[in-house]
Amino acid sequence: SLFAQNSDNLRDSKARNSLLQDQSIADQEGTWMAGFGRRVITPRTPVWLAGYGTKREPEEVIHDIWVKVMALKSPEGNRVVMATTDNQGMSRSVYDEIFEKVQNQFGLKRSEFMVTFSHNHSGPRLRDDLHDYYPVDEEQERLVDEYSSWMAEQVANAVGEALGNWQEAELLTGEGYCPFAVNRRENIESEVPQMLANRIPLEGPVDHYVPVLVIKEPAGELLGVLFGYACHPTTLSFNRLLGDYPGFAQINLEKSYPGINAMFFNTCGGDQNPLPRRKLELCERYGQMLSRAVQRVLSGPMKPVSTGIQSAFQFVDLEYEEVANRETLLPIANGKSELHARWARRLLKKLEEGAKFPASYPYPVQAWKLGDELLLLGLGGESVVDYSLRFKHDFADHTACQTTWVCGYANEMISYIPSRRVWEEGGYEGAHIDEYGHPAWRWTKDVEERIAATTQAVVRQVS
Fold first, then answer.
1. Looking at the whole model, is its pTM more than 0.90?
2. Per residue, what are the HEC states of 363-429?
């Protein structure tokens, strides 16, 4: 029944060719400029697949994975650049390597550049991301390090391409709807198919809206589509490389609108799963559902975005509730969990070498204001859905018809980022930051308040 309500046919080519006709940006001074670039980032060596904490050597490639770049410039010369990738996560070291390249080569400021990752669990590992998760050897670490540097170079090349092909553009926004994401904290995975079949309401907060940004030529030709959704790309767990449901959604859109750049960002899906799952046909179906949701937005009325760009970036220190020490690490290093034992042994070695663990970690928060109509926030880590729901409410400006979108997987993986509600409830997303390499088990309970205060600060800067 879930699929039946989303099984409307794709519109024919005539309707697609008339996409966005009769829509224009009125009463604005100057014109948007836009540029796009892209590179394949499918590994050419047997780098293990990321996620799930097991040895997963890729057996075949279902489809390529990509970095795609959108650059926007306002008439006054301000610019922002977004790179969307089909990676699972991105460590601080990889993020810094990418940013250093685009800063040195193109003069981009940190506030002007946002790199996102879909959190795809069928993509390759990256250096220092979930470092203790995998039972790797030196050869695998070498391959991951080589791939990470090569991937960073491809991102920089795609940025250069985007900044080198500016053309006049118009921007429009809209929102669609797609219901396959399920709150995994509140629903038992094995029970979800029967609940859906019997039309039993599922539990827990979700964000089923699909933000869509359209970039087109003034004459009406579609150049690019940026779209988002709040859900883990964990439909699959086998040893084949692909982009999970976001990969299929992007492929579908680029087939339907030849020549466009379809780009996906994960909103705040830290506690959301695609359910049911574990089958390739389900992965394809979810990709189809999402791409059709985008197409419905494209075929309807959309809101023009006036020109103007403001950007801001700030780190905020998130404090650890308890910092690990030798006494707390020794039992774990000799415990039954290999994952946690690897983590504890690594930290014990650091202590023996004289390291002192910090009491906090710098967390990235970013804001872009496009015209008067769109506020785009970038949060690091695996932000739970509460952040998207909160900030869309907090920053709704009905007088300016402002829309707020939140990218919850921006710039750095870090860990799960719980809201106060999730922190107090506990569970997997409320703690377990040790699995991400931190010298601690959870953040302090004011984690949401710290992030919200910093988000308020960067929004004030762009407003």
1. yes
2. EEEEEEEECCCEEEEEECCEECHHHHHHHHHHCCECCCCEEEEEECCECCCCCEECCHHHHHHCCHH
b/e sequence 203-219, b meaning 16+ C-beta within 10 Å: eebbbbbbbbbbbbeee
- DSSP H helical segments within 82-218, as ranges? 92-106, 138-163, 192-197
Q: What is the DSSP letter of 111?
A: G
Give the model confidence (pLDDT) of 54-92 as tens digits. 999 999 999 999 999 999 999 999 999 999 999 999 999
Site of tokens 């308890």: 322
Residues 379-410: pLDDT tens digits? Answer: 999 999 999 999 999 998 876 778 999 999 99
- Nearest CA to 330 among 311, 316, 356, 351? 351
Quick one: CA torsion of 36, 37, 41, 44, rounded to 10 degrees?
150
The structure tokens listed for 236 are 């699959």
* Direct distance between the N- and C-terminal alpha carbons of the chain, in angstroms, rounded to an integer: 44
Q: What's the CA dihedral at 133, 137, 140, 141 to 10 degrees?
A: 70
Type of residue numbered 107: G
What was the pLDDT predicted at 170? 98
β-bridge partners, 405? 376
pLDDT single digits (tens) 143-185: 999 999 999 999 999 999 999 999 999 999 999 999 999 999 9
User: What does the longest C-alpha to C-alpha distance in the chain come to?
Assistant: 69
Cα gap 450→444, rounded to integer Å = 10
In 156-291 the beta strands, taken as DSSP E runs, fall at 167-177, 181-183, 209-216, 222-229, 240-241, 261-266, 272-274
Give the C-alpha separation, 351 to 297, whole Å.
54
